[in-house]
Every structure is written in structure tokens, then in C-alpha cells.
Write a structure and sequence with these properties.
five-stranded mixed sheet; 4 helices; globular
Length: 110
């Protein structure tokens, strides 16, 4: 299962990305998570149905310091992703740096 999430609310500056990273590692989920310039947190979760759905459920609550208003969930159908080495990350999820985000955006344009 591949799910693309947009998480709205007070989700930046509260440790949401790291919190999601830890949740994903525990469930052996691959993907990425990043802050959007518009204030949301965006994530791609790749794993078995039960584990991905459990992490999505947890994202609707978020860490204690956050205030999640809405989580938009879509099936991820895009075939082009960042390289496997970036996707695998340390334990399956990569928190993208600003340089990675720029490189990923540029590669999607070509």
C-alpha cells in the first residue's frame, strides 16, 4: 500500500516529522516526510495495509505538541519516486533535507 498524506494544523515546529519517522520505523514503513512551505506536513507511507492504516490513524492525533485539524489521504499512483537509496533511509523513512527537496522537485520537472 502506498498512501500520500497532507497533514494540516499546528504541525510544524512541534516535532511532527520526527514523531512520524519514529512511528514509521516501528511499523517497518518506508517513504518520506517533509514540511511544506504552506504550513502542512506531507508524507508518503509505503508498507502493508494494516501498518500504514495504523500510522495514518496515529497521524490524525499527532504528537502531544501538535494540533492536527485535517489529514488528506490519497492513494499514491506516481511511478516516479526519489532514488531507492534516498527512499530506504536509515530505517525505512527519510526525512528530507532542504537540498533533497530541491533535487527531488528538479528531477520531477525533467
Amino acid at each position: 500500500m502506498k498512501k500520500h498524506l497532507l497533514i494540516f494544523g499546528k504541525v510544524q515546529g512541534v516535532g511532527f516529522r520526527y514523531w512520524l519517522y519514529v512511528k514509521a520505523i516501528k511499523k517497518n514503513i518506508r517513504g518520506w516526510v517533509k514540511n511544506k512551505i504552506t504550513g502542512e506536513v506531507e508524507a508518503l507511507l509505503i508498507g502493508n495495509d494494516e501498518d500504514v492504516n495504523e500510522v495514518i490513524k496515529q497521524c490524525k492525533r499527532g504528537p502531544h505538541s501538535s494540533n492536527v485539524i485535517q489529514v488528506k489521504i490519497q492513494d499514491y499512483k506516481q511511478h516516479r519516486t526519489i532514488s531507492d537509496s534516498k527512499l530506504k533511509g536509515l530505517f525505512g523513512v527519510t526525512i528530507l533535507s532542504d537540498i533533497d527537496k530541491i533535487n527531488m522537485k528538479n528531477s520531477e520537472l525533467t
